């Protein structure tokens, strides 16, 4: 199932697409591992993770949430689909990672109870592009609501390139750095950008990692 970027669609209707993907286990986006750009950012200390609570919205099988979790950073992997959450939880248990470090929750990013202390960090990959372009402004405002002042949003931009015949359809929807500035600049400051970050082999030239600080 795909949509035109210009088409209008309700979020209820659009969300069915994701439930359908998980019901049929059609998860072609899944690369089976942590995104190389995120691993590089953290392991090569290009930017230092805070302590506190973090969230990965649209976490899928949860590799990135598991990678970021540590005794000083409790992570929540969040997904609309209970099947995704169950799959991620089983994977975490199979890896022997404690539920004290990372938990997976079924929730809608746009509508869930945010902890009083909010999140100190969020990681967004293949989530901005998974949303219909008409939902982008709400995506930016929602991150401003859930991230604590001084907290950070790590956004791995993807896909920055699509073929001519596919560029107006999604998900994933084509995006640009300007699309992020448009919806984040009011509440976030771009503090790190690496256009030469490592990428999955099949996504070379299609990704740029960024870190934004909540004002
Ligand atoms: C393209 S997949 C990416 C999954 C994961 N980030 C990865 O790279 O493997 C997008 C995910 O976002 C989830 N999703 C879509 N809309 C959502 C929403 N409003 N709230 C939470 N999760 C959502 C979908 O169920 C799906 O698992």
TrEMBL record:
InterPro entries cross-referenced by the UniProt entry: SAM-dependent_MTases_sf, TPMT
GO molecular function, one term: S-adenosylmethionine-dependent methyltransferase activity
Keywords: Methyltransferase, Phosphoprotein, S-adenosyl-L-methionine, Transferase
TM stretches of this protein: none
Species the sequence originates in: Coemansia brasiliensis
Keyword Transmembrane helix in record: no
One Pfam family here: TPMT
Protein name, UniProt field: S-adenosyl-L-methionine-dependent methyltransferase
GO biological process: methylation
Matches recorded under SUPFAM superfamilies: S-adenosyl-L-methionine-dependent methyltransferases
């Amino acid at each position: 199932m795909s949509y035109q970027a210009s088409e209008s669609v309700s979020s209820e209707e659009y969300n069915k697409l994701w439930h359908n993907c998980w019901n049929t286990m059609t998860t072609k986006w899944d690369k089976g591992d942590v995104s190389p750009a995120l691993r590089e950012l953290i392991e090569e200390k290009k930017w230092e993770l805070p302590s506190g609570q973090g969230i990965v919205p649209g976490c899928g099988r949860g590799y990135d949430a598991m990678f970021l979790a540590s005794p000083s950073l409790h992570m929540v992997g969040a997904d609309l689909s209970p099947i995704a959450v169950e799959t991620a939880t089983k994977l975490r248990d199979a890896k022997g990672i404690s539920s004290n470090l990372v938990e997976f929750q079924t929730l809608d990013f746009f509508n869930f109870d945010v902890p009083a202390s909010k999140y100190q960090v969020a990681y967004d990959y293949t989530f901005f592009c998974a949303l219909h372009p008409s939902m982008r402004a709400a995506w930016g405002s929602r991150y401003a609501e859930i991230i604590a002042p001084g907290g950070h949003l790590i956004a791995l931009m993807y896909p920055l390139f699509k073929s001519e015949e596919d560029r107006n359809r999604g998900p994933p929807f084509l995006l640009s750095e300007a699309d992020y500035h448009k919806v984040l600049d009011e509440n976030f400051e771009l503090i790190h950008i690496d256009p030469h970050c490592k990428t999955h082999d099949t996504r070379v030239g299609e990704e740029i990692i960024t870190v934004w600080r909540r004002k």
